[in-house]
């Protein structure tokens, strides 16, 4: 594999290209008119304009991307995350054109893209799942009877949904039929597929996901867990590895379950198996993401691997040269997604010009970044600027380093979620590890952020005054 095209933009495009360069592989960037001056364009060995700014006129144009790949004799295409990364048709198009899709086979994408097909495939492997139905509901009165036996509250989920889309909580029996009808019509409109199923609603879950890697020789390993419970409207904001609540036994049990899920769909490449963990530490299979995830760096750091390097090696047909018993957790890693959003204004996108944009540097700090000072933040794409990752021997060290790195991260011209990261890191519930997927709803408000920033400013001022007075003491001239 001498040349790969990265069918993506922003931080992940640069991140993938960095590993390709490390491996001596040439890189091709594709870009839209809005990304003409984006760093991933200049970072690549070759770059091709593929269309106008809107994603469906550029980064989602599979045919156009294949055409560019063929014209430039590309051997492999890395899709990153989002865009075409979980598009089975695009994976098939690559296969048909003898271009290696650096990801799973289209079959695995299809199976795991349907929650019901995923449940069907996984059922044979005796993986714990939330009590519920595993067929699409066709008879609502019958479904209501099942809901009553499960016990309210229940969740109605769209089979073609995912990541929180197409989910409805039903608190009581009287709401069931109306909610069911709405869920079906929403699923038809959103996904073109009205198949829905029901599950017992797990009240205060943690979102724990296991990183897996599988090669084409039957080897499947897990690279431990990531805690992704700090989410806002199903968008992860803070992720970490390992999770504070997993015991070694539970970690091994969930890791083996994740490996079985990968085997259930003949998985190849990097994938993530999502679980819910309830308050009694029971875990339940949720879904499998058939792509490299945004938060993969925290797993790379604690497991000392380069997941993109492993993806490329697997895509080249190489057998994994890592044995499960070789893998050990080393330290703790924390990731904050730096979004161009205003946490004091309901996290609304904050587009504009990066007048100042300087990254923190230092031991234990990694920034996977997609922007540079002087750039405009385009309105057309996901507003994530970068991922700020800190790591240390302990969780406390990673947290303290995160607070310092955020303070050193200089951004002017737009608002970002950096202050939200400081709020989370200073919050007792987070520091103690006592949180679940409702953390943001439970603890966050603009006022709380404001108070936290005020308190932060006061402490900084007191430190400055103390330092000044100490300096004065040292400077005091001797009495003559
Ligand atoms: C659930 C659940 C509770 N009970 N299923 C969210 C998106 C997708 N990964 C599945 N998700 C959930 N499924 C049952 N039976 C809780 C989540 C969930 C969640 C729900 C509401 C708000 C935030 C959430 C974050 C992670 C997981």
Describe, in plain words, how this protein is organized in 3D.
The protein starts with a strand and ends in a 5-residue tail after the last helix. The strands form six sheets. The protein has an eight-stranded antiparallel sheet, with helices on both faces. The chain has a five-stranded parallel sheet with strand order 3-2-1-4-5. It has a three-stranded antiparallel sheet with strand order 7-6-8. It has three domains: 3-102, Rossmann fold, CATH 3.40.50.20; 131-200, 2-Layer Sandwich (Dna Ligase, domain 1); 206-447, D-amino Acid Aminotransferase, Chain A, domain 1 (2-Layer Sandwich), CATH 3.30.470. Helix 4 (88-96) packs antiparallel against helix 5 and helix 5 (106-113) packs across helix 6 (115-123). Helix content is 37%, strand content 26%. It has helices spanning 10-22, 39-43, 62-71, 88-96, 106-113, 115-123, 140-150, 176-191, 248-264, 296-303, 307-315, 395-408, 418-426, 428-431, 439-443, 446-475, and strands at residues 3-6, 26-32, 46-51, 76-78, 100-101, 154-162, 165-170, 196-200, 206-214, 220-232, 235-241, 269-277, 283-289, 332-339, 341-342, 348-349, 352-353, 356-358, 365-369, 376-377, 384-392, 410-412. The protein has 16 helices and 22 strands. 46% of the residues are buried. With 480 residues, the protein is α+β, with helices and mostly antiparallel strands. Ligand MV4 binds at residues 130, 155, 163-164, 199-202, 205, 207, 231, 234, 274, 276, 286-287, 437.
């Amino acid at each position: 594999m001498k040349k790969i095209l990265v069918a993506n933009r922003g931080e992940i495009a640069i991140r993938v290209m960095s590993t390709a360069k490390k491996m001596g592989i040439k890189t091709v960037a594709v870009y839209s008119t809005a990304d003409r001056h984006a760093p991933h364009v200049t970072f690549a060995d070759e770059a091709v304009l593929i269309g106008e700014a809107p994603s469906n006129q550029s980064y989602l144009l599979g045919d156009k991307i294949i055409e560019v790949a063929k014209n430039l004799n590309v051997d492999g295409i890395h899709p990153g995350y989002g865009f075409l990364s979980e598009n089975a048709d695009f994976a098939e198009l690559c296969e048909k054109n003898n271009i290696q899709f650096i990801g799973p086979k289209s079959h695995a994408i299809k199976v795991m893209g349907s929650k019901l097909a995923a449940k069907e495939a996984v059922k044979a492997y005796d993986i714990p799942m939330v009590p519920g139905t595993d067929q699409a509901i066709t008879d609502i009165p019958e479904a209501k009877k099942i809901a009553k036996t499960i016990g309210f509250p229940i969740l109605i989920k769209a089979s073609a949904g995912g990541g929180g889309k197409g989910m409805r909580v039903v608190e009581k029996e009287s709401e069931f039929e109306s909610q069911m009808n709405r869920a079906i019509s929403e699923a038809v409109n959103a996904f073109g597929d009205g198949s829905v199923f029901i599950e017992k609603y797990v009240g205060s879950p943690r979102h724990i996901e296991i990183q897996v890697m599988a090669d084409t020789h039957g080897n499947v390993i897990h690279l431990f867990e990531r805690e992704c419970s700090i989410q806002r409207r199903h968008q992860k904001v803070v992720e970490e590895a390992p999770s504070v609540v997993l015991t070694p036994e539970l970690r091994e049990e969930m890791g083996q379950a994740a490996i079985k899920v990968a085997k259930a769909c003949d998985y190849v490449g990097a994938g993530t198996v999502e679980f819910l963990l309830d308050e009694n530490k029971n875990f339940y299979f949720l879904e499998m993401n058939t792509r490299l995830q945004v938060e993969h760096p925290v797993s790379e750091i604690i497991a000392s691997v380069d997941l993109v390097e492993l993806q490329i090696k697997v895509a080249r047909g190489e057998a994994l040269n890592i044995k499960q018993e070789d893998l050990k957790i080393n330290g703790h890693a924390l990731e904050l997604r730096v979004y161009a959003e205003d946490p004091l204004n309901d996290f609304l996108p904050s587009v504009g010009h990066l007048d100042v944009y300087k990254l923190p540097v230092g031991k234990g700090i990694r920034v996977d970044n997609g922007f540079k000072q002087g750039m405009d933040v385009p309105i057309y794409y996901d507003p994530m600027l970068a991922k700020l990752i800190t790591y240390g021997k302990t969780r406390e060290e990673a947290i303290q380093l995160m607070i310092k790195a955020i303070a050193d991260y200089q951004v002017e011209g737009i608002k970002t979620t950096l202050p939200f990261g400081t709020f989370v890191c200073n919050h007792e519930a987070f520091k103690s590890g006592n949180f679940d997927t409702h953390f943001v709803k439970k603890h966050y408000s603009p006022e709380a952020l404001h108070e936290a920033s005020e308190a932060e400013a006061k402490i900084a001022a007191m430190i400055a005054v103390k330092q000044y007075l100490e300096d004065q003491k040292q400077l005091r001239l001797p009495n003559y």
